[in-house]
Structure formats: C-alpha cells, structure tokens
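QUALITY CONTROL LOG
STEP: pairwise intake check
CHECKER ROLE: data steward
CRITERIA: each record must contain a sequence immediately followed by its structure tokens, with no blank fields

ENTRY 1 OF 2
RESULT FIELD BELOW
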Amino acid sequence: MDINTESFENYSKIKSLCLKLIQNPKNIDCVKELNAIVETSPKSFIKVVQPTVLSTFYPILKSISENKSRDDDKRVIVDTFRNLFEKSTVDKMVLFFNIYSFLLLEIYDHRQHIVLPIHEEYKLSILNCMSALMKSASSELVFSLYTRENAPRFCQMLYTALEVAKTEQLRSLRVSAMECIMAIAKVLDDNDFQDAELRNQVAEVFLFFLPGIASGLTRIALEDEKVGHKVPMVALKTWGRIVTLLMSNYNAPDEPFDLRSFKDVMYKKSSPPGTERRRKFKNDKDLKEYLNTNKRTLSWYKDTDKSLQPLVVEFAKLTHHSHYKVREELAEMCGLVAESCFMTMPVSVSHLIEVIITLSQDENDDVKQNSQGILQKLSERLSSDNFKTLLENLEEGFYTGINSLPRKFNGIDEREQLVALNLIIGYVNLFGKYKLGQVLLSVAHLNKLMDTLLHISEFDRSNVSLLEEYTVKDLESTPVLRTPWKNFRRFKEDSIKNKLEELCALLVKHGGFDIISDFLLDVILYRPETKKEAIFILNESVSGMERSEENVRIVKNIVSVYIDSNCWEVPLSVSEDEFGYVHTLADVQNNVIQVCLLVEGIGKIALALKKDFQQFLLKTLHLVLERAGSGNPLVKTAGLSALTNITFACGYSDITALISSNIDYFTYHVERKLNKLEKNEGVLNVLAVVLNYSTVDMLTYIADIIQEVLIQSCDKFKEKKATAFLEIFKIFINCLRRWFEVTEKIEPVKSKEEKRRELEHFEVTGINTEESGNFSDEIMGKTAEEMYQEDVGKKREELDKEMEGAEVEEYKKPEPPLHIKLTVAVLSRSLHFLPSKDRTKKLLALNVLTNGLEILRDYEDELLPIVHQIWSPLVQRFKEVDDPLIINYSFNLLVVLARLSKEFIRMRTMKDVFPSIVALDKFSTESYLKDKGSSYRYSQMYKLQLVILQNLPRVLIDLDVADEKFIEAMGVVFKYLSNKQPVPLQKAAVDFFKVLALYDLKLVQSTMEKWKKDNTGSEYGNNIQQIMFRYGFVMLK
C-alpha cells in the first residue's frame, strides 16, 4: 500500500481516534475529529480506512439504540457516515442494511407509522446520509438490493421522505427529502438514469410505489408560490424521472411489448385503476404473493396511464407560475416523459404535450425556445408507426381545443382567449408538415377549424366611416402595418389579432395551403355572410406561403376571385342600384371592409411572391391604384398600403419608380377609360395617384392625359364628375409647382419714397412721366378690358398695313413651354366652375386658380388674360357674405392677383372688391369679448377675419392705392385694436399697422397720434400705445 506522508499521518490519527471511541463510545469530540479528517481526505484514502471506521461505529450505534442521545451528537455521527459514503463504496448487503436500518429508525416510528418529531437539522442530516448511502452501493450490490423481496424495506424510507417533503417548512429539508427519493429510485445520478438495465430492475420494485409518490409529488409541485421556486422545481424533476423510470418504452420483462396489443388493451374496459394496489393484506403470505404476481403488463400500463391522467392535467396550472425556472423545469419534465413514455401512457402524454404547447408561447425566451425545441423533436417523430396511438389522442385534444374557442371568444376574458389560441398554434406546430395535412383531410376537423376561425374573426363595422376626403398621403416604400379597417367584434387586443394572424400563417406554412384555400374560396363565393372573414383568413394564410409552382397556381385562383367584378366592384356609398335594391348603411360599411381586405390581400400576395408577382402586376396594379385614390379614407389607406407593398416586393425604390417604369401602361389604360368615363369612374382615382407620384420626366405622357380630362370636363353629360375633374386639376397644378419648384416670391415692403426714386431711373426725355409712367385704370380713364380691346384693334390695323406692303420677314412670338400651356388650359377650364352653385366646386376652382397663377408669374402674356377672365366671377364670390369660407378662398386669390398683376387690377379692386372687404368690419362685433376659451375661435368667420388682417396691408401696397383708401382700411382695422378682441386678432391688427408704417410712415404716424388723443384710457389705448412705443424710433425720423 503506497501511502504518502500526509495520508500516513491521517491514518495514524484515525486509528488512534477509533481506539478512543472503542474505549468510550460516547466521546463525541473524537467523532468530530474523525469527521473532519474524513471530510478533507481523498477518496482513495477513505476507501482504505472505511472498514476500520465502520467497525468502530458498531458499538456507537448499539449505544445510541439502547440509550437516548442528544440529536446534535447523533447528527455528528450521521454526518460522518455521509462524508464516508460520499467517498467510498458499499458492496456488502449486511453493512448496507445495518446503516439503512439505523437511519430509518432515527426518523421513522415503525409502530405508529409516522415521522419522528426530531430537529429539522437532524432530519436533514439523516436524509442527506441516506442519499449518500444509496449512491455508494456498488453495481453488484444494487442488483442484489433491488428485488421484490426488499420492496417493503424501501417502502418505509420512501414514505418517510415523501412525508417530510410534504409537511416540513425548511425548504432545504424538503429538497433533500425529494433528492433522497430519487437516490433510492436510482434516478438522482444522470449516469444511473441512463442505464436501461439498471432502470428496468429498479422499476420492478418501484411499480408498487408509483401511485403514492406521483400524487404526493404533484401536491408539492402545486403548492402556493410563497414556498419559492426551488421546491416545485425539484418536485417536478423527481416526478418526471420516477414516472419515466416506470413507464419508459421498453418491454415488460416477461411479455413482449406489441403496439397492436397495447391499442386493444387501451380500448378495453377494465377494473378501476389501482384496485389491486388498494387492497389490504392479511398476512405476509398475501403480501409476498402480491409482490410476486403484480407485473408491468399491458393492462398495468393502461391502468397506470389512466391513474396518472388527473395528476398530469393539474400540471397545466404551473404554466402560469411567476418564476420562469419552475416553468422551465416543467417543460423539461413534460418533454422527458413525452419522449420516453409516448407508447405506454399516450393519454397522459397528450396532456403533457398540451403543457409544452402552452409553454412554447411563454414570455420568457429560454422557456419558449426549450419548449419549441421539444415540440420540433416530437413533430419529426410523429410520422412513426409507434406514435399512432399518441397521434390519435393529440388529434382528439386538437379537436377539443378548437371546440372550446367559440365559447371562450364569446366571453370577455382576453387572457383566456390568448391561451386558447396559443394552444391551437402549438398543436399546429406539433403536427407540422408531417401530419397537419393528414389531420386537415378529416372533414370534421377541417370544417370545425375553419368555421371556428370564421366565427372568432367576425368584424365590427360600427367604426367604419363613409366620409370622404381628398388628400393623397405619402407612404414610404416599406410594408405598412396599420390596418384601421380591421376591428373585431369578439376581441379588441392587438396581441390576440397577432396570434390569430400567426395561426393562419402557420396552417399554410405546414402544408395546408391547398386545403384551406379551397375551403375559403368556396366561402367567399357562396357564403356572403362570412365573406369578409374568409378574405381576412385567406390574406393571413398567404403570409405563411412558401414560393413554389403549386402555390403560385393556388395564388392565381385567389387573385382571380379577388379581382372578379362581383367581389371587387361593390357600392361604397348609400344608393339604389339599377334593379331597385337599396344599399343601406350597413351594406356599405361591410363593403368598405371587404374592399379594404381585398386590396390588402393583393399587397400580401405581392410580399409573399416577391419578384414572382410581376406576372400579376398588369392585372392588379390599375385596380390597386384606383383604391389608393379613393375618397374614402379607409379604402385609400388600404390601397396605398397595398401599393407600397407591391413596390417593395417588386424591387422598386419607391412608388414613383414603379409608376415611371409602367407609365406607358397607365397612359394607355387611363386614356382608354376616360373615353368611357360613365363606366370607368375609378379611372379618375387612378389618375390622381399617378399624378401625385409622377416626376417632371413624365410630363409628356401626362400632358396627353390632362388634355383628355380637359375634353371630358367640357361634356355637359358628365357634370356629376366635375368635382373629380377639379380634384385632378388641383393635383396636377400642385405637381407642376413641385416639379418646377414654383414657390411664392414675396418681396420686402418698399416705402413710397423708395418707389419714387426707382421710377426716376426710367424717365424718358420728352415724356410726361406723370401721364405716361402710370398705366393704372384710373389714370388712363379706361378699364383694363377697354384697353385690351383697343390694343387688339391697333394690332389688326398694323397687321393689315404690313400685308399690303412689301413682304417682310414675319416675327413669331416664342411659344411658351408645355407646362405653361397646360396651366393656362387648366385655369381657363377651372374658371367655368367658379360661378357654380355647388360649394365644393367653387372651393376647388378657387384653390386651382390660386395655386396655378403662381406658375404663370413670369409669363405676362399668358397671365394677364387669365387675370382678366377671373375678375368678373371673383367679384361675385365676395358677395356671398353668408359663406365665410368662400370669401376666405376668394381673398387668398385676390392676394395672389395683387402680387402678380399689381396696378393692372387696382381700379377694379377699389371699385368692385374693396367695398365688400371694408363691409366686413361688421363682423368685428361678433368677435368682441370672445376669449380663448370660446368656440368662436374655431369658426370660419374668425379664420376669415384673421386672414384679412394678415394679408390686407400687402394687397393695398401691391396695388399702390390712394391715401384715402389706406385711411379707410385703417379705420376698419382700428376696431380690432380693442383689448376686448381675441388676442390673435389684436396681434394681427398691430402687425397691419407695422407693415403700413414701412410703406407710408407719415400717414400711419399722423393717424396714430390722432387716435391716441381720442382714446387715452379706452379699450384701444393699450394697443395704440404699443404701436407708438414699438415703432416710435422709426416715427421720430
């Protein structure tokens, strides 16, 4: 024996201590010293001294059994045993049972069959020592220990450990008790747990203990969360390993395991499970007979499966445990049992798989990923014949879960609804590509699943608006997620909607596209009451589609149904059709949802097919553009979303690039359909979107379209479409301003003196500038129209003279650019709608004229004739005093006219319009005492007053009106200097005088000084004083 110096010294110490203990068995100090040496010595050394130490403890154990010793003293002895067994092996059965019996009797009263009331620390030492003893048994001893004859001996310790685990408060003690159970079952050590031969022999003994251990551990695992997470974790681990030990898919020792026989037994009626186990034994002979005859037969597996089923169902409660480690351990336990016992306990395993399914959607990533990994492994194995019985149970669970969905979605508990959807999603993932198609081939399963999805997807139409708007929103080329048309009746949370969409996508991902699409297309065609819901489910199903020739064929059918006129062309306003059927509000709201879903579906198909969608582009793009230009905000949003998705899917950088690449296609279709506008009303919507996203490079193509629109707008039979024509004109004008970067040019205000000095530079010798330098209406004594006609006459006379004389080279005026010609044509046509009785048409016409004139500012020959034509109908608009919005738009047009044509309209403005503007001072009484909390500030009249006050000074300056007109205007504005007026109107009035002071300082100064004298201390005094002080330094000059 090769022992180093330290070991030799320890050996001498141990031998000396053993001699002392033999002489005095009650010497606890010697035991403590001995324990310290054992604890720090290596295993090789302990293996040598083990016989010496154990022989020394025999008299000590005898002394303890005969005399009562303190628990603390006995705990030192037990701890010494534990340290000894952790580092050595026990290979003799007599020695094993001597120690085993000692430990058992220290914690268990075999007469009253209860756990002895000893200290918790001593119980912990005993259980830890028992675990160490069980693990120290050699391989040869294990096969001798685990026999049916020794089953009663193990039963007492198992009962004791289970009672400690159930009743004690100390968490570490409860954990040690359950680890002791695993040690006795030889499943605590992973190496032993993987030894199939050892597990088989141990299982033959433990089959008698399974019911009690399983129920007890279930009770511990389901205790209140206040016990912490460690106790339920160990309980779940112990439950899973012991059940796996007994129920693993290996054959019974004396009977081959046959799947067909097992299925026959599963469907046979038998005596209630556990009947034999619950009977009383009269004597040892009966007990021995039971131990020898009760075996793990097919009937035993079936009965055990049924008896475990109620316990397994209870584990579903732990899926909501607050600590993620408990949920993680639950998933591992369920996965272990499901993978190892799917043949022997298919009923219970199906419930455990439901638990794994629930955990696969857990909020914790680790739990979620582990559960999904388990499901993936099970899914891959479901195709095996060995899984047939389990698969049948899973299909039944799937069907039950589907049946429960309507009831849960008819309630209000959205958390319960989410859990129910997660369960169905888990089942779909479990069946996967290998079995989902087979499951859906069942008519009962397919009909129930799809009808349930249609039921829970019912739409709520109450929030669907039919109000129209005329704006085109810019969307970036990324998939759009906003879907305001999808409001559901049976749930409100987005999380549930997302889960429902995920479920639909998974059904297709795992190979059910052909079956599901056929079913839903039939619903769309023949069940109008659930058409919307069917379209929704089909749209979401497409999201899970993989690109393949078969799937593209299916998509062709879907697109054909979607764009069919019976489905696509539905009324979007309350109306009566040609057959006398009245489309009610409810009908139209349903139609709006349907249209939104259809166009959304086109976008989703594009995203799914990517580049392959090009084959559908020419069929669908025009229809999508029509929806993108709709006046209904929901339909417009859906259309633009689909257009953006198509752009993204086909690889274009943005919508403009998409339109540019297909401009020939658009031009052809738009021009062709404009010729038959009464049958193609949506073409104007298409044109609106095309214009909005076009660039100046496309102007030549768009010019032909605009010319066609101009022609169509002249058709009196298409008067109903005038509003749409004006919308097109408005968008086109805005596009031109954007393309050619036309912005308002507002020059700084110049004083009268500065203007006079500028005019001096243009004086011509021999010409009276006072007469010839000013060509305004009042100086010339003629109106602009009279001067215009006179000029035309002179031109004709000069032309006739030239024709009579010698031939000379004819001068041709350069033609204006194309966009100027189009602008003139659009403005001229829009003018015809200015006198309309329809308010919307007038507003649109005013808007077009206001924005369009800015484009013509550098082309005087085109500008002035248009200004001349505008004037007469514009004057009439200022007389509509009952409509402040019309006057507001008209005044804005006047501001532009004054800035661009200046003195050309001065005389007629002062004669025709200025009186109407001055007459608006009566409205100053309406705004009087309207503070910031008043609803008046949201009225059109308030907005009109604000616009006039802000822009009137520039109009007067641009027209260079006479001083008396300035004074008259200041008199009107003076009323808004009252501190009883709304503050924004006061500020605008103060700014009015600021601008006029820049133009004619003396006039403003004299007026202010007069008002100051007359209004000292009045409600006007503060603002007058403010103007004086603010601009006093200027006025003093």
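ENTRY 2 OF 2
RESULT FIELD BELOW
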Amino acid sequence: MFWLAARSVVVSLPKWRSFSLLLRTPASKCISFAPSPLLLRSRHVERIYCFKDHKVSKGSARGTKKLKASSTVLHDKDLSHIIWWKERLQQCRKPSTIQLIKRLMYSNLLGLDVNLKNGSLKEGNLNWEMLQFKSKFPREVLLCRVGDFYEAIGIDACILVEYAGLNPFGGLRTDSIPRAGCPVVNLRQTLDDLTCNGYSVCIVEEVQGPTQARSRKGRFISGHAHPGSPYVFGLVGVDHDLDFPEPMPVVGISRSARGYLIVSVLETMKTYSSEDGLTEEALVAKLRTCRYHHLFLHTSLRHNPSGTCRWGEFGEGGLLWGECNARHFEWFEGNPVTELLYKVRELYGIDDGVVFRNVTVPSENRPRPLHLGTATQIGAIPTEGIPCLLKVLLPSNCMGLPVLYVRDLLLNPPAYEIASTIQATCKLMSNVTCSIPEFTCISPAKLVKLLELREANHIEFCRIKNVLDEILHMHRNSELCEILKSLMDPTWVATGLKVDFETLVNECEWASGRICEMISLDGEIDQKLSSSSVIPSEFFEDMECLWKGRVKRVHIEEEFAEVERAAQALSSAVTEDFLPIISRIKATTAPLGGPKGEILYAREHEAVWFKGKRFAPAIWAGTPGEEQIKQLKPAIDSKGRKVGEEWFTTIKVEDALMRYHGASDKAKAKVLELLRGLSAELQSKINILVFASMLLVIAKALFAHVSEGRRRKWVFPTLFRFNKSSKDVKSLDGTNRMKLIGLSPYWLEAAEGSAVRNTVDMHSLVLLTGPNGGGKSSLLRSICASALLGICGFMVPAESAMIPHFDSIMLHMKSYDSPADGKSSFQVEMSEIRSLITGASSRSLVLVDEICRGTETAKGTCIAGSIVETLDNIGCLGIVSTHLHGIFDLPLDTKKTECKAMGTECVDGQTRPTWRLIDGICRESLAFETAKREGIPETIIQRAEDLYFSAYAVEVSSERIEERKKQFYSGGTVNSFHEAHFPPRGTTAGALDHNTNSGKVEVIERKDVESAITIICQRKLIELYKQKNTSELLAVHCVAIGAREQPPPSTIGSSCVYVMLRPDKRLYVGVTDDLEGRVRAHRSKEGMHHVSFLYFIVQGKSIACQLETLLINQLPNKGFQLTNVADGKHRNFGTANLSLESMPVH
C-alpha cells in the first residue's frame, strides 16, 4: 500500500488577504518588502494615485488622454506587488539600469509611463496584452516572444539589463519606455542569469503558424522558470537532455512552544514538510544548507509589541536574526503551514484545487539535527580550513544527488531503526560478489515536472527505463534482492512515500514494459533517414532527425510511409526539373565566366533549390535542358520575398517540398502526441517513479561509501540503544558508554600509517588537558565525526567501535566575535554554551574545546567549573578540554567526571607531544615552543620565559617538573610536532535491453572466454598446489561485469585478473588492485562505453601477474585475438617464491 502523491492532504485556504495586514506590521529597512515612505503617508490607505507631473501642451488631446490613462487607481493587491518591485529596483547598481528606472511610473504592474513613446496601454495592443499576462504572475519577470526575440518592458526590462547583461533597446533615449530583450537562441542563458539572481520568469510564446494579414499573433503562457526549476517548454521535441538543479523550496520560520518550527514547500513536487522543536543553532544550520527561493518569517518571532524585528538582541534569537538580516524575507502571520501554502499559491499562481502532499516524517526517537557549529567544525557543511567529512565518506567520482543525500543524512541523523537498517544494508553491500548496476540517478523534481507538463522526451524515457530496469535487475539477483528490500525504509524516510515491495516490483515491470513498447531503444535500425542521390543528405537529416528514432515505427507506420513517399516524390521532382540543367551546364565548356549551377540545401528556408548563374542559353535551339530552364522561377521565402538573384525553383519542386514538409510535420506531431500520451500514462505512477529514483540514489550513495570505507580500512561500529532503565552511566554490561579502539582522524589515511591511533573508552564526562599542538582539537573532532557516522549507519575511522545511538551530538570549538550582532567572542561562546546545556540529556554527546578561553582567567575558570558540574549532573557523555589548569583547584561537586590528558615525552631534553590519550592531568602547555615554531622572534620568547619564571617560580619548581615528567611520559614515537589539519584527498541515456540479438552473441562469446580462462588458470593452480604437496584445491570462479554494471565493493584492495571483451571481438588481459578504477578508465575511452569484463580474485599481486602472463600467452592458442600480446613477453615477471598458504581464488 502506498500513499498517493496528489491525494494525501486537502488544504483549505482563503482566497484573499488584505494588504492592510502588511501596513499594520511594517518591516525593517533591511528586508526585501519594506514599504516606501512615499506610498505610506496615511495609515488608512484605500487607493493611491501613482503618477508624475507632466508638461502637457494646450490643445493636445493625445497628451490629455494619456494623462487620464495614467491616473489609474491601484488597489491593495497591485500596490503590494509594486512595492515589492521597488525594493528590488533599489538594489540595481548599473548606470544604464538607473537611467531606465528614472523613466518608470508606478501606476501599473509593468511600470510604464503612458506619456512616453511606445508606452500606450490601449486595449488590444501588445503593451496591454503583456499587462494582462503580468497581472497573472505579478512577481515574475515577463518575457514575451515577439518574432525572433523575447522582449521585456518597463520594470522587467530594468531587471534584464541589470542581471542578464543585456543592453536596452533604443539605447538610453529618454523619450521612450524601457525595453530590452534577448534573441530566441539566447533564451536559456538569459533565464539562467535571472534565476541565479533569485528571480522567477514567466515566458509568453507566440502561436506558431500562418496568420491573416494585419492580424496579431496569438500568445499564451508557455511556462515558468524559477530558481531550482528550469523552463522546460518544447523539451519533448528536442534530442538533448536538460540539467535540473536542486529544487529550491519556499521556507517559513515561526516560534512554537517546543522551540523553532521550519516549514518547507516545494512547488515543483507539490509537497511540504514541517519540523518542530528545533534549536536556534540547528535552524541556522538548515538555513545555511538550504538554497531557498523565498523566506518568510512569522510574526511570532517578535518578542515585543513595538513592531521591531531585531528580536533577541541579547541572548536567544540573535544568531537567527544575524542569519536572516543579510537575506531577503517577508513577514507573515496566522497558522504557519496554512498561511505559507497560501503564499506559495500566490507566488506561483497555483490553483486552489492543486493539493500539496505532506511528506513530513515523524521525528519521534530521532536525534536532534546538528547545530551549526557542530556541522561546520567537522565539515558536514563545507567550511574553509576544516577537513570536509563529505569528501572522505565518498569517492571523488561520486557527485550530485548521492552526495546531497549523505549530507542531509548527516545533518539530520535518522532514528535508531533506520540507522540500523542502513548499517545492515552497507554490510550486505560490502560482501556482494556479483556485479552491480550503474544506478541511474534522476532528480525526483525533474521527473515530476517533465511528466506533469508532458515535456519528457525520448532521452528522458530511456533514463526512466534505466531506473526501472535496475530495480528489476536487483530484484532478480539473489544477493541484490536483499539489499533492495533493506533500502525500502530509508527511501520512505527520504521521500515520505510508503510503498509495498511487491507493488514496487510490479509497477516497475509495468512501466518498463510500457516504455519498451513505445520508445525506440538503442540498436533498432528500422528508422533510417530518407536519402537521394540528387538531394543533399543534410536536408533529410535536419528534417527527419526531429522525429525519427524516438518511438517505435509500428506506432507511426502510416505517417512513416507517407514521408517516404513524399521524399521519393521530391527526389523525382528534383531529378526531372534540376538534373537536366546540371547536365547541360557540365557539358558546356568555357575558359572564363562559363555557366554555373548546383542543387543545394537552403537550411534557413528548409528547402532544396537550384542555385546558378549564366546558365540561360543565348539562343534557344531546343537542346536538352532548355525546357527545364524555362520552368525555373525565383525562389521566395515564407514571407513572399525573393531570396536572391541566384536561387531558383519550379512549381513541381515547390509542390513536392510542400508535400514533404506536410508529411514530415504530421509525423513529428504524431510522435510528440505519443510522447505526451506516455507522459500522461506514467504520471499516474509518479509515486513509484519518485520512490524508485530515490532508492537508486540511496543505493549509489551507500555502495560508494562502502567502497571508500573499505579502501580506507574503516569498520562498521556496534550500534546500540541507551539503557533507559539504568540510571548509572557506568553500567557494567557495556551500555551507556562509547568505546573507540584505534580511532584515527577521519581526514588522514590511517591505512597508510599517516595518523596516530587512539583508544577512547568513555563512560561519563571527561576533563581533557594537554599541550598546544598535542591533538586535543583533532581528538574531539574525530570523536564527534565517528559518533555521527555511527548513529547514521556509516563506517567509522577506527579498528573497532561501540557507539550508542545518541539523541544529540554537539561540538563546540573556537568562537569568533559577531560585530553585526554587537557580540564579542566570549558572548558568542556563552550563547552557544547556553544552547548546548539546554539541549543536553543523559543520552547526549557533548564536546567542548578549550572552554572559556575568551575572558579573564579567574572568572573564566569558575564559569568553566560550573559548566562541568552541570554537564556531570546531566549525566551525558562528553569531553571538555581546557588550558585553565586552575579548574583542578576548585571544589567541584562532580560524581562521574574523569581526567584524561594528551601525552608528552622528553626527547633530547625537550618536551614534545605524543598525540596519544592517557589518564591523568597535563599542565604543560608547550606555549613557548609553539610560539617559537610559528616564527615569534627569539628575543620575545626569551623575555617571556624570564617573565614566566619570575612570576610563577613556585609552580615551576624542579620537583614539580620531575613529577610531571614521570606522570605523563608516554614512551611513544615522535612522528611530527604539528597538529595541523592535513588536506583531504582529493550515463548513458540508453536503456537496458537484455533481449536483443547482439546481447545473445555477447553471452555466447563470454561463456567461451570464461571456459578458456577457467581451464588455463585451473591447470596452473594445480601445478602450484602439487609443488606444495597439498590436497586442497580452490576453483577459479569468474564474475561477469555487464555493459551497464560495475564491480562490487568486495574487490577493493584485492588483486584481480580481468579480461575485457572489446566491441571488435578482441580481448585485453590485465591485472589490478583497483578494479573499479580500471573499469572506469577503460570505459572512458572512445567506443568503449559499454564494454563488458570477466574477472576473478587471487591472493597476492605476484600470483595475479603470473596468471595474467599465462592468459596472454595461452588464450591465442584457444582461438582468441588479444590486443596486448606484447605483455606476454614478460614471462619472468613476479616469479618469486610463491606462498600458497591461504591463497584463495574466488
């Protein structure tokens, strides 16, 4: 059972909201919707006349008429939109734009001054027609098709000049209204420029086709372009794909009894979600990672009745205000969900009958979303100078939707059940031995928009079929089927759609079969282009490539046959009327200035004509070709104008051309009708398509993570729930504790020995001390990342791990001041600590680095001590690191807090860090050594040491120094003195069709190759085992990688012998420890995109190299042709003494 996308929720919304609501709550000057003082002179505004004083000549009836037209009454709804545009225009900075703005009059939505040239709004003219379109979508830039241009006037022209880099029509003349536009071929670039700057665009197209004389062409709204939602009109008829950006929602924020509420509405998907109980830091983190189209702030955010929007100037709310202050936003009131949906309908012109589906996933038992500081300090939100967690979780070649899924999962950790499912799925993926699909990723928003607007073309249908076929491929494979089933719940959480497994499979089979019945897939050769020996091939290519090869011929057989007959008739007409003239010209010889003529394709006019000169005979003598010359007439274009002096045609050829174009247009119309009909059929299955596409995105993300995790030698942690019944955090059965053995910084390659591993066994709160550069910050960052990865179901950078499912993970590191909010760094730190303490529970992980560093030492130490007591009383797990050693002299009331330190050692009389976690307290800061290492002059260092010893002579007595050395000597090996962050390490559109004849030939050949490989390699292994005098014998098991498949993660780090089956029926034999990378490299070459492979795994590179050489030398004897025969000459490569113990061959 699954939920219908458009039938889940019915929202009742009021049809009208008075603009007086806006007038009662005027906004700050910082926001995008601040009313102009000129327009708001009175508190009770019923109507406003917006016109300028103009000098009108006496007796000028036309001027008087225009002035009357300009005195139009603006009502509330129009006035609000004009104020909105005025605020946008105030941000324009180009001199040319500023000059255009001066010619605007805000008496209508277009901003036209009717007293200027071309400014008339007379009913029936183009300006009036554009005003009607503008009134339907008043907050969108209007582009109207006029011939070969898309034009904008008034306010919209100013926006085009400012943001699209276009020049105004007519220059900067002051007697004409602002006008600008772009050629038809540049429409896509213009739309991209406008949407990238946050504007929505309404596009008006002309009705194509002949019109009567002196009649205006009909126009219609063809579509819209929004940020995150491109313009798709006409895509069904083209032969290329369109990139879809990440959809941008409309976001509303309000205050509730539980905390902060954020509502997100996606116009493209017709969905909305709400999340309540957020902290201020978590809310700001969501705003930082969400590229939204519009931001609305609820009036519940205001803390006082005076109307000011600077809420929370001291304390809570300041961080959110600082985030919103730099952005455009508008106020709203009432029910947050209902009112925001009303705003969305108003913004996008959506009818009341359109239903928005609620995709909110219940948040019970889910960990709290990450705070902004936590997300930035571990690189979940990319931050300069911080190692990016996303870049080490996935391979560098994994991009797009899978990366976005992983990022969202980290920022919003799942419930325990989902995290356990994700981990179990990853474990299955890690053990898969069969080849895996490529996992075609399609944006759900793209699917919904193209199918809803009936604009999906044949390329998109092939991609949809790829998605469906990959789901079915996983279902039919026993190993992958378990993975497919386990991905159902994570996909439900990601989409809000609950789909039954059997329903998914059955619907995918139906949809895939329906597409296969309609769409012409790769390899079908029954739709060749028409051809003729006398007509240039480019003509037929341009005319027929627009519709051939899109749907199967059986559906357009009648239209197809008519086009073939029309093409034959055109070829006959050209042969009869033009060819005799060509023959006559070729037979005529003249040394200079002789006759010339040829049959050419006039691409601009979509015609085949005769082009020649000096071909008419001086004396008509009845010779061959004269009759055809007499039939020639000048060629004319579609507007009846003569094309040129050298272009000619005949009545018969023109009739044949007209017949051919008519047949071709009819065929194209039939193809588009069939494609749009298929879109309508699949739209009824949109939930299944969205679910399937998202499932493959998740599958690709998890497979990529497992592959990278195996390469980095990461492990799966033991994930468990907190013991709710036990109040003692130090329970003996291992619950309510976190243990990380062999933990390494996530940004370092621990497998290469470039990191110091630590063991962290955390039962309670830990007070951590250590020297500068000793690894405290790196340890906290590593623990935070590992805990987060664990509760999300991912692998962690450790040798083994036990991680409880925390209800929140909070990391606080260094703070900076915020001048915009008038806060010092210590104020910012205290604000973050306040949020951290109020959000912590006994099931939380709290990590604080160098607490209270930004204030006076004595009082800062006491504040830090009090915070430690509070966290100890809460009973959370965590670490608080500090250089405030006076905290150990305070009478702290703690019960479970432990003291640990980052170890040091003495080498050549100097104290150095070991970067290892030990028990105890470390009072050595290595401050002088650190300052010296960073280039502070020696004189300053020496003076500092003198001052230190004179002021703190008691603390640094020799007895205490020796005591510290004995207490903290760790005996580790010194690798480096730095604690610096090392920088992290850096589809085809064809559908799957396994039933074609070419596929059968490939299968037969693959079996022959597999049999030969098995015989050759098995014989060699028998010889090796006889030499070892052992009875154990392992069989060679070849695994196939199909044309649109890739190796499983189990091949990572294993020595593989592989054979590539090239399209030219030749073989390539190779050996590698990175099979996935080698397959990708081979397929990146021209003509190799769909090659298949056979491989088997052996223990050790030496054995693999021997078998590679053996195959290269023996396969030609079996009748196979190889491309790398020369590699077989290296017979002695890798023939060192073999160790056959535990040498499995898979």
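INTAKE CHECK: passed for both entries
DESCRIPTIVE NOTE, ENTRY 2: The radius of gyration is 37 Å.
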